[in-house]
Design goal:
single chain, mainly alpha
Length: 78
Amino acid sequence: MLQAKLTLPYGQFETMVATQLPFGKNIAYQLRCIAHAVDQERLGLAEVPRSYSNAFRLAQLKPPLLSVRERQSWCAPT
């Protein structure tokens, strides 16, 4: 997704998403954000959730919140 966005001529990425992928531009945007976070090593590939919507939420976290997330469990029993 990142490579396609960077290499396709202006406007062609949206056309490709609409005609060649089984999802729309919103999901394509979320997947690009996740890939960017992994490329920047803000998220480790092994820790990316299988759910793209949850992975997108993690990718949107600012670095200080990501470090808190690493130290705590999101699903810790109360």
